[in-house]
Amino acid sequence: MTKLQSFYLRVNRLSGTLPPGWSSMTALTDLRVSGNQLTGTLPPEWSSMAALVNLWVHENEFSGSLPTQWKTMTKLQNFQLHTNQLSGTLPPGWSSLTALTDLRVNRNQLTGTLPPEWSSMAALVNLWVHENKFSGSLPTQWKTMTKLQNFQLHTNQLTGALPPEWSSMTALTDFRFSTNQLTGTLPPEWSSMTALTEFYCQYNQLTGTLPPEWSSMTALVNLWVQENKFSGSLPTQWRMMTKLQSFQLHTNHLTGTLPPEWSSMTALTDFQLHTNLLNGTLPPEWSSMTALQSLYLSLNQLSGTLPPEWSSMPNLEVLRLVNNKLRGCIPESYTTVNFPSIRRIGLEYNVNMAGCVPPSWKDPQNALYSSYTDLRNSNSTLASENCDSSCTAGTERSGKSGLSTASIIGIVVACAVVVLGLLFLIIFLCCRRKHNKDDRDAEGSVTSSRASVAESSDAANSLAGGDDEGVQSQGSHDSRYSYYNDLY
User: Fold this and answer.
1) pTM greater than the 0.85 cutoff
2) Cα Rg for the chain, rounded, in angstroms?
Protein backbone atom coordinates (compact mmCIF):
# COMPACT_ATOMS: atom_id res chain seq x y z
CA MET A 1 0.00 0.00 0.00
CA THR A 2 2.96 2.28 -0.49
CA LYS A 3 1.13 4.20 -3.22
CA LEU A 4 -1.98 4.81 -1.14
CA GLN A 5 -2.82 8.52 -1.01
CA SER A 6 -6.07 8.71 0.98
CA PHE A 7 -7.01 6.40 3.83
CA TYR A 8 -10.30 7.02 5.70
CA LEU A 9 -11.14 4.92 8.76
CA ARG A 10 -13.00 7.53 10.75
CA VAL A 11 -16.11 6.93 12.88
CA ASN A 12 -15.96 3.20 13.23
CA ARG A 13 -15.52 1.07 16.31
CA LEU A 14 -11.85 0.45 15.82
CA SER A 15 -9.74 -0.30 18.88
CA GLY A 16 -6.09 -1.07 19.49
CA THR A 17 -3.10 1.09 18.57
CA LEU A 18 -1.75 2.87 15.52
CA PRO A 19 0.67 0.54 13.67
CA PRO A 20 4.21 1.96 13.45
CA GLY A 21 4.51 -0.03 10.22
CA TRP A 22 2.23 2.38 8.41
CA SER A 23 5.24 4.64 8.20
CA SER A 24 5.93 2.96 4.86
CA MET A 25 2.88 4.66 3.36
CA THR A 26 4.99 7.60 2.31
CA ALA A 27 2.61 8.63 -0.48
CA LEU A 28 -0.28 9.26 1.92
CA THR A 29 -1.63 12.80 1.77
CA ASP A 30 -4.86 12.27 3.69
CA LEU A 31 -5.16 9.95 6.72
CA ARG A 32 -8.26 10.01 8.92
CA VAL A 33 -8.73 7.63 11.86
CA SER A 34 -10.81 9.94 14.07
CA GLY A 35 -13.93 8.97 16.02
CA ASN A 36 -12.84 5.51 17.11
CA GLN A 37 -11.66 3.86 20.33
CA LEU A 38 -7.99 3.71 19.49
CA THR A 39 -5.46 3.77 22.34
CA GLY A 40 -1.72 3.86 22.84
CA THR A 41 0.72 6.53 21.73
CA LEU A 42 1.29 8.40 18.50
CA PRO A 43 4.06 6.52 16.64
CA PRO A 44 7.24 8.59 16.19
CA GLU A 45 7.93 6.39 13.14
CA TRP A 46 5.22 8.17 11.21
CA SER A 47 7.60 11.06 10.74
CA SER A 48 8.40 9.46 7.37
CA MET A 49 4.91 10.36 6.11
CA ALA A 50 6.21 13.70 4.94
CA ALA A 51 3.59 13.99 2.18
CA LEU A 52 0.65 14.19 4.61
CA VAL A 53 -1.61 17.22 4.13
CA ASN A 54 -4.50 16.11 6.34
CA LEU A 55 -3.96 14.05 9.50
CA TRP A 56 -6.97 13.40 11.72
CA VAL A 57 -6.46 11.33 14.88
CA HIS A 58 -8.93 13.20 17.10
CA GLU A 59 -11.72 11.78 19.28
CA ASN A 60 -9.92 8.63 20.35
CA GLU A 61 -8.19 7.59 23.56
CA PHE A 62 -4.58 8.25 22.65
CA SER A 63 -2.16 9.00 25.48
CA GLY A 64 1.48 9.93 25.81
CA SER A 65 3.28 12.94 24.37
CA LEU A 66 3.28 14.65 21.00
CA PRO A 67 6.17 13.20 18.96
CA THR A 68 8.78 15.85 18.25
CA GLN A 69 9.80 13.68 15.27
CA TRP A 70 6.65 14.71 13.44
CA LYS A 71 8.27 18.06 12.72
CA THR A 72 9.13 16.55 9.31
CA MET A 73 5.47 16.66 8.22
CA THR A 74 6.03 20.09 6.73
CA LYS A 75 3.18 19.80 4.22
CA LEU A 76 0.51 19.37 6.89
CA GLN A 77 -2.33 21.84 6.56
CA ASN A 78 -5.12 20.28 8.63
CA PHE A 79 -3.90 18.57 11.82
CA GLN A 80 -6.53 17.31 14.27
CA LEU A 81 -5.35 15.92 17.63
CA HIS A 82 -8.14 17.08 19.92
CA THR A 83 -10.27 15.10 22.38
CA ASN A 84 -7.78 12.49 23.48
CA GLN A 85 -5.74 11.91 26.64
CA LEU A 86 -2.47 13.30 25.34
CA SER A 87 -0.01 14.76 27.85
CA GLY A 88 3.33 16.53 27.87
CA THR A 89 4.17 19.82 26.18
CA LEU A 90 3.77 21.41 22.78
CA PRO A 91 7.01 20.62 20.86
CA PRO A 92 8.86 23.82 19.92
CA GLY A 93 10.25 21.82 16.98
CA TRP A 94 6.83 21.79 15.36
CA SER A 95 7.54 25.37 14.36
CA SER A 96 8.65 23.80 11.06
CA LEU A 97 5.02 23.01 10.24
CA THR A 98 4.61 26.35 8.51
CA ALA A 99 1.95 25.15 6.05
CA LEU A 100 -0.58 24.53 8.84
CA THR A 101 -3.88 26.36 8.51
CA ASP A 102 -5.88 24.34 11.05
CA LEU A 103 -4.30 22.94 14.25
CA ARG A 104 -6.41 21.60 17.09
CA VAL A 105 -4.92 20.07 20.24
CA ASN A 106 -7.77 21.02 22.56
CA ARG A 107 -9.37 18.73 25.16
CA ASN A 108 -6.29 16.87 26.22
CA GLN A 109 -4.06 16.97 29.30
CA LEU A 110 -1.23 18.98 27.79
CA THR A 111 0.93 21.14 30.05
CA GLY A 112 3.79 23.61 29.82
CA THR A 113 3.87 26.95 28.04
CA LEU A 114 2.83 28.13 24.60
CA PRO A 115 6.03 27.97 22.50
CA PRO A 116 7.17 31.37 21.18
CA GLU A 117 8.79 29.41 18.33
CA TRP A 118 5.38 28.70 16.88
CA SER A 119 5.28 32.28 15.64
CA SER A 120 6.55 30.78 12.36
CA MET A 121 3.11 29.20 11.82
CA ALA A 122 1.94 32.38 10.12
CA ALA A 123 -0.50 30.55 7.84
CA LEU A 124 -2.73 29.39 10.71
CA VAL A 125 -6.41 30.23 10.37
CA ASN A 126 -7.73 28.06 13.21
CA LEU A 127 -5.70 27.42 16.37
CA TRP A 128 -7.43 25.56 19.19
CA VAL A 129 -5.45 24.82 22.37
CA HIS A 130 -8.29 25.17 24.88
CA GLU A 131 -9.25 22.81 27.71
CA ASN A 132 -5.76 21.73 28.64
CA LYS A 133 -3.43 22.68 31.50
CA PHE A 134 -1.20 25.21 29.77
CA SER A 135 0.48 27.79 31.99
CA GLY A 136 2.73 30.79 31.55
CA SER A 137 2.13 33.95 29.56
CA LEU A 138 0.77 34.66 26.11
CA PRO A 139 3.74 34.90 23.70
CA THR A 140 4.01 38.32 22.12
CA GLN A 141 5.86 36.59 19.26
CA TRP A 142 2.58 35.12 18.07
CA LYS A 143 1.70 38.54 16.67
CA THR A 144 2.86 37.11 13.33
CA MET A 145 -0.25 34.90 13.15
CA THR A 146 -2.11 37.59 11.27
CA LYS A 147 -4.36 35.17 9.38
CA LEU A 148 -5.93 33.69 12.50
CA GLN A 149 -9.72 33.75 12.42
CA ASN A 150 -10.65 31.31 15.18
CA PHE A 151 -8.35 31.37 18.23
CA GLN A 152 -9.29 29.28 21.26
CA LEU A 153 -7.20 29.59 24.45
CA HIS A 154 -9.86 29.21 27.10
CA THR A 155 -9.93 26.88 30.10
CA ASN A 156 -6.25 26.65 30.88
CA GLN A 157 -4.00 28.07 33.60
CA LEU A 158 -2.49 30.91 31.59
CA THR A 159 -1.18 33.96 33.44
CA GLY A 160 0.19 37.40 32.67
CA ALA A 161 -1.14 40.26 30.60
CA LEU A 162 -2.86 40.47 27.24
CA PRO A 163 -0.22 41.44 24.64
CA PRO A 164 -1.02 44.73 22.89
CA GLU A 165 1.14 43.37 20.05
CA TRP A 166 -1.60 40.92 19.16
CA SER A 167 -3.48 43.86 17.65
CA SER A 168 -1.97 42.63 14.38
CA MET A 169 -4.45 39.72 14.42
CA THR A 170 -6.99 41.75 12.48
CA ALA A 171 -8.59 38.74 10.77
CA LEU A 172 -9.90 37.29 14.06
CA THR A 173 -13.62 36.59 14.16
CA ASP A 174 -13.79 34.26 17.19
CA PHE A 175 -11.38 34.89 20.09
CA ARG A 176 -11.78 33.11 23.42
CA PHE A 177 -9.41 33.07 26.40
CA SER A 178 -11.90 32.78 29.26
CA THR A 179 -11.32 30.71 32.41
CA ASN A 180 -7.64 31.38 32.92
CA GLN A 181 -5.67 33.45 35.42
CA LEU A 182 -4.87 36.36 33.13
CA THR A 183 -4.29 39.80 34.63
CA GLY A 184 -3.80 43.35 33.42
CA THR A 185 -6.11 45.41 31.24
CA LEU A 186 -7.93 45.12 27.94
CA PRO A 187 -5.50 46.63 25.41
CA PRO A 188 -6.97 49.64 23.59
CA GLU A 189 -4.77 48.56 20.67
CA TRP A 190 -7.03 45.57 20.11
CA SER A 191 -9.58 47.98 18.66
CA SER A 192 -8.00 47.00 15.34
CA MET A 193 -9.73 43.60 15.60
CA THR A 194 -12.74 44.94 13.75
CA ALA A 195 -13.72 41.57 12.25
CA LEU A 196 -14.49 40.07 15.69
CA THR A 197 -17.97 38.64 16.14
CA GLU A 198 -17.24 36.52 19.24
CA PHE A 199 -15.10 37.71 22.17
CA TYR A 200 -14.94 35.84 25.47
CA CYS A 201 -12.60 36.79 28.33
CA GLN A 202 -14.75 35.93 31.36
CA TYR A 203 -13.45 34.21 34.50
CA ASN A 204 -10.05 35.85 34.66
CA GLN A 205 -8.53 38.52 36.91
CA LEU A 206 -8.53 41.35 34.41
CA THR A 207 -8.63 44.91 35.75
CA GLY A 208 -8.82 48.47 34.50
CA THR A 209 -11.56 50.10 32.49
CA LEU A 210 -13.49 49.10 29.40
CA PRO A 211 -11.64 50.77 26.50
CA PRO A 212 -13.75 53.35 24.65
CA GLU A 213 -11.55 52.60 21.64
CA TRP A 214 -13.24 49.23 21.26
CA SER A 215 -16.25 51.03 19.80
CA SER A 216 -14.68 50.17 16.45
CA MET A 217 -15.58 46.49 17.00
CA THR A 218 -18.94 46.98 15.36
CA ALA A 219 -19.21 43.39 14.10
CA LEU A 220 -19.42 41.93 17.63
CA VAL A 221 -22.39 39.65 18.25
CA ASN A 222 -21.36 38.11 21.57
CA LEU A 223 -19.21 40.03 24.08
CA TRP A 224 -18.55 38.34 27.41
CA VAL A 225 -16.28 40.11 29.94
CA GLN A 226 -18.03 39.05 33.15
CA GLU A 227 -16.43 37.66 36.32
CA ASN A 228 -13.34 39.88 36.25
CA LYS A 229 -12.30 42.98 38.21
CA PHE A 230 -13.11 45.71 35.71
CA SER A 231 -13.85 49.16 37.13
CA GLY A 232 -14.85 52.56 35.83
CA SER A 233 -17.89 53.54 33.83
CA LEU A 234 -19.67 52.02 30.87
CA PRO A 235 -18.29 53.68 27.71
CA THR A 236 -20.98 55.59 25.85
CA GLN A 237 -18.86 55.08 22.74
CA TRP A 238 -19.84 51.40 22.72
CA ARG A 239 -23.21 52.48 21.36
CA MET A 240 -21.67 51.65 17.99
CA MET A 241 -21.87 47.91 18.78
CA THR A 242 -25.33 47.68 17.28
CA LYS A 243 -25.04 43.99 16.31
CA LEU A 244 -24.57 42.75 19.87
CA GLN A 245 -26.95 39.97 20.86
CA SER A 246 -25.40 38.60 24.06
CA PHE A 247 -23.62 41.15 26.26
CA GLN A 248 -22.25 39.94 29.59
CA LEU A 249 -20.72 42.52 31.96
CA HIS A 250 -21.83 41.15 35.29
CA THR A 251 -19.79 40.48 38.43
CA ASN A 252 -17.20 43.22 38.10
CA HIS A 253 -16.59 46.53 39.92
CA LEU A 254 -18.18 48.80 37.30
CA THR A 255 -19.50 52.18 38.45
CA GLY A 256 -21.38 55.13 37.00
CA THR A 257 -24.72 55.20 35.25
CA LEU A 258 -26.45 53.20 32.54
CA PRO A 259 -25.79 55.05 29.25
CA PRO A 260 -29.03 56.10 27.53
CA GLU A 261 -26.96 56.05 24.33
CA TRP A 262 -26.82 52.26 24.46
CA SER A 263 -30.43 52.31 23.32
CA SER A 264 -28.93 51.83 19.85
CA MET A 265 -28.15 48.19 20.76
CA THR A 266 -31.48 47.06 19.41
CA ALA A 267 -30.30 43.52 18.51
CA LEU A 268 -29.62 42.59 22.16
CA THR A 269 -31.38 39.47 23.41
CA ASP A 270 -29.38 38.70 26.58
CA PHE A 271 -27.98 41.63 28.59
CA GLN A 272 -26.46 41.07 32.03
CA LEU A 273 -25.04 43.87 34.20
CA HIS A 274 -25.83 42.49 37.63
CA THR A 275 -23.42 42.42 40.58
CA ASN A 276 -21.60 45.68 39.99
CA LEU A 277 -21.62 49.12 41.63
CA LEU A 278 -23.75 50.91 39.04
CA ASN A 279 -25.94 53.82 40.11
CA GLY A 280 -28.31 56.34 38.58
CA THR A 281 -31.67 55.63 37.02
CA LEU A 282 -33.08 53.15 34.53
CA PRO A 283 -32.97 54.84 31.09
CA PRO A 284 -36.42 55.06 29.48
CA GLU A 285 -34.55 55.12 26.17
CA TRP A 286 -33.69 51.44 26.56
CA SER A 287 -37.28 50.66 25.62
CA SER A 288 -35.93 50.55 22.05
CA MET A 289 -34.25 47.22 22.91
CA THR A 290 -37.31 45.37 21.71
CA ALA A 291 -35.42 42.11 20.99
CA LEU A 292 -34.42 41.71 24.65
CA GLN A 293 -35.34 38.42 26.25
CA SER A 294 -33.27 38.68 29.45
CA LEU A 295 -32.20 41.83 31.32
CA TYR A 296 -30.31 41.35 34.59
CA LEU A 297 -29.55 44.47 36.68
CA SER A 298 -29.73 43.06 40.21
CA LEU A 299 -27.22 43.77 42.98
CA ASN A 300 -26.31 47.32 42.01
CA GLN A 301 -27.14 50.73 43.47
CA LEU A 302 -29.68 51.80 40.87
CA SER A 303 -32.28 54.34 41.94
CA GLY A 304 -35.27 56.15 40.49
CA THR A 305 -38.49 54.58 39.33
CA LEU A 306 -39.39 51.81 36.91
CA PRO A 307 -39.78 53.36 33.43
CA PRO A 308 -43.31 52.78 32.10
CA GLU A 309 -41.70 52.89 28.65
CA TRP A 310 -40.05 49.52 29.26
CA SER A 311 -43.42 47.81 28.96
CA SER A 312 -42.94 48.07 25.18
CA MET A 313 -40.41 45.20 25.22
CA PRO A 314 -42.61 42.44 23.76
CA ASN A 315 -39.96 39.69 23.85
CA LEU A 316 -38.78 40.23 27.41
CA GLU A 317 -38.93 37.03 29.44
CA VAL A 318 -36.84 37.88 32.52
CA LEU A 319 -36.30 41.29 34.15
CA ARG A 320 -34.19 41.14 37.30
CA LEU A 321 -33.77 44.29 39.44
CA VAL A 322 -33.34 42.66 42.84
CA ASN A 323 -31.44 44.45 45.62
CA ASN A 324 -31.15 47.99 44.30
CA LYS A 325 -32.38 51.36 45.57
CA LEU A 326 -35.42 51.75 43.34
CA ARG A 327 -38.36 53.81 44.55
CA GLY A 328 -41.89 54.55 43.49
CA CYS A 329 -44.48 52.01 42.49
CA ILE A 330 -44.78 49.33 39.84
CA PRO A 331 -46.27 50.91 36.70
CA GLU A 332 -49.75 49.66 35.85
CA SER A 333 -48.42 48.71 32.41
CA TYR A 334 -46.15 46.01 33.91
CA THR A 335 -48.53 43.16 33.15
CA THR A 336 -48.58 40.17 30.86
CA VAL A 337 -50.70 42.18 28.43
CA ASN A 338 -47.74 44.43 27.63
CA PHE A 339 -45.10 41.77 28.38
CA PRO A 340 -46.60 38.80 26.50
CA SER A 341 -43.40 36.74 26.87
CA ILE A 342 -42.64 37.61 30.49
CA ARG A 343 -41.87 34.85 33.00
CA ARG A 344 -40.41 36.79 35.91
CA ILE A 345 -39.90 40.37 37.14
CA GLY A 346 -37.59 40.44 40.17
CA LEU A 347 -38.01 43.46 42.46
CA GLU A 348 -37.18 42.06 45.90
CA TYR A 349 -35.14 44.09 48.38
CA ASN A 350 -35.87 47.52 46.93
CA VAL A 351 -36.97 48.90 50.30
CA ASN A 352 -37.91 52.36 49.01
CA MET A 353 -40.54 51.07 46.62
CA ALA A 354 -44.15 51.70 47.52
CA GLY A 355 -47.63 50.75 46.42
CA CYS A 356 -48.90 47.32 45.45
CA VAL A 357 -48.16 44.76 42.80
CA PRO A 358 -50.62 44.95 39.89
CA PRO A 359 -53.68 42.84 40.84
CA SER A 360 -53.13 40.45 37.94
CA TRP A 361 -49.84 39.28 39.50
CA LYS A 362 -51.79 37.63 42.33
CA ASP A 363 -53.53 35.23 39.98
CA PRO A 364 -51.89 31.78 40.31
CA GLN A 365 -52.51 31.25 36.61
CA ASN A 366 -50.64 34.44 35.70
CA ALA A 367 -47.06 34.19 34.43
CA LEU A 368 -46.02 36.80 37.01
CA TYR A 369 -47.47 34.94 39.98
CA SER A 370 -43.97 33.67 40.83
CA SER A 371 -42.78 37.28 40.92
CA TYR A 372 -45.56 38.07 43.39
CA THR A 373 -44.57 35.12 45.59
CA ASP A 374 -40.91 36.20 45.44
CA LEU A 375 -41.92 39.60 46.81
CA ARG A 376 -44.13 38.03 49.45
CA ASN A 377 -41.38 35.67 50.57
CA SER A 378 -38.97 38.59 50.88
CA ASN A 379 -41.50 40.40 53.14
CA SER A 380 -41.84 43.21 50.64
CA THR A 381 -44.63 45.70 51.39
CA LEU A 382 -45.50 45.56 47.68
CA ALA A 383 -47.06 42.15 48.27
CA SER A 384 -48.61 42.84 51.68
CA GLU A 385 -52.33 43.09 52.34
CA ASN A 386 -51.83 46.63 53.70
CA CYS A 387 -49.98 48.01 50.69
CA ASP A 388 -50.80 51.53 49.50
CA SER A 389 -52.92 51.09 46.39
CA SER A 390 -52.97 54.86 45.78
CA CYS A 391 -49.28 54.87 44.85
CA THR A 392 -48.27 56.92 41.81
CA ALA A 393 -45.18 56.64 39.67
CA GLY A 394 -43.39 59.42 41.51
CA THR A 395 -44.01 58.05 44.98
CA GLU A 396 -40.93 57.54 47.09
CA ARG A 397 -40.41 56.26 50.57
CA SER A 398 -37.46 57.27 52.68
CA GLY A 399 -36.68 55.20 55.75
CA LYS A 400 -39.57 54.85 58.18
CA SER A 401 -41.13 58.22 57.52
CA GLY A 402 -42.81 57.24 54.28
CA LEU A 403 -42.14 60.77 52.99
CA SER A 404 -40.32 61.67 49.83
CA THR A 405 -37.20 63.80 49.85
CA ALA A 406 -39.12 66.65 48.21
CA SER A 407 -41.81 66.47 50.90
CA ILE A 408 -39.24 66.57 53.68
CA ILE A 409 -37.55 69.61 52.15
CA GLY A 410 -40.93 71.35 51.84
CA ILE A 411 -41.77 70.69 55.48
CA VAL A 412 -38.40 72.01 56.65
CA VAL A 413 -38.79 75.21 54.61
CA ALA A 414 -42.35 75.75 55.89
CA CYS A 415 -41.23 75.29 59.50
CA ALA A 416 -38.41 77.77 59.00
CA VAL A 417 -40.84 80.37 57.62
CA VAL A 418 -43.20 79.89 60.58
CA VAL A 419 -40.38 80.21 63.12
CA LEU A 420 -39.07 83.39 61.49
CA GLY A 421 -42.60 84.82 61.38
CA LEU A 422 -43.12 84.14 65.08
CA LEU A 423 -39.75 85.71 65.87
CA PHE A 424 -40.62 88.92 64.02
CA LEU A 425 -44.04 89.03 65.72
CA ILE A 426 -42.48 88.71 69.18
CA ILE A 427 -40.00 91.50 68.40
CA PHE A 428 -42.83 93.67 67.10
CA LEU A 429 -45.00 93.15 70.19
CA CYS A 430 -42.10 93.86 72.55
CA CYS A 431 -41.29 97.10 70.75
CA ARG A 432 -44.92 98.11 70.70
CA ARG A 433 -45.41 97.52 74.43
CA LYS A 434 -42.27 99.50 75.23
CA HIS A 435 -43.36 102.40 73.03
CA ASN A 436 -46.88 102.47 74.49
CA LYS A 437 -45.45 102.53 77.99
CA ASP A 438 -43.24 105.49 77.12
CA ASP A 439 -46.21 107.33 75.60
CA ARG A 440 -48.34 106.73 78.63
CA ASP A 441 -45.59 107.97 80.91
CA ALA A 442 -45.18 111.09 78.77
CA GLU A 443 -48.95 111.69 78.62
CA GLY A 444 -49.17 111.35 82.35
CA SER A 445 -46.63 114.12 82.74
CA VAL A 446 -48.39 116.31 80.19
CA THR A 447 -51.75 115.68 81.82
CA SER A 448 -50.42 116.60 85.22
CA SER A 449 -48.97 119.81 83.87
CA ARG A 450 -52.13 120.62 82.04
CA ALA A 451 -54.17 119.80 85.07
CA SER A 452 -52.22 122.39 86.99
CA VAL A 453 -52.62 124.85 84.16
CA ALA A 454 -56.28 123.96 83.86
CA GLU A 455 -56.77 124.45 87.52
CA SER A 456 -55.19 127.87 87.23
CA SER A 457 -57.21 128.56 84.09
CA ASP A 458 -60.37 127.36 85.72
CA ALA A 459 -59.70 129.60 88.57
CA ALA A 460 -59.08 132.43 86.16
CA ASN A 461 -62.13 131.52 84.10
CA SER A 462 -64.20 131.27 87.15
CA LEU A 463 -63.08 134.61 87.95
CA ALA A 464 -63.84 135.62 84.33
CA GLY A 465 -67.12 133.71 84.32
CA GLY A 466 -66.51 130.82 81.68
CA ASP A 467 -65.01 127.16 81.37
CA ASP A 468 -64.85 126.54 77.53
CA GLU A 469 -61.02 126.50 77.36
CA GLY A 470 -60.77 123.68 79.86
CA VAL A 471 -63.13 121.44 77.77
CA GLN A 472 -61.12 122.15 74.57
CA SER A 473 -57.81 121.06 76.13
CA GLN A 474 -59.22 117.69 77.32
CA GLY A 475 -60.68 116.99 73.87
CA SER A 476 -57.31 117.58 72.18
CA HIS A 477 -55.53 115.09 74.51
CA ASP A 478 -58.11 112.31 73.92
CA SER A 479 -57.75 112.65 70.16
CA ARG A 480 -53.89 112.38 70.20
CA TYR A 481 -53.94 109.24 72.47
CA SER A 482 -56.36 107.57 70.11
CA TYR A 483 -53.98 108.27 67.18
CA TYR A 484 -51.02 106.51 68.85
CA ASN A 485 -53.16 103.44 69.60
CA ASP A 486 -54.16 103.20 65.92
CA LEU A 487 -50.49 103.47 64.76
CA TYR A 488 -49.08 100.61 66.89
Assistant:
1) no
2) 43
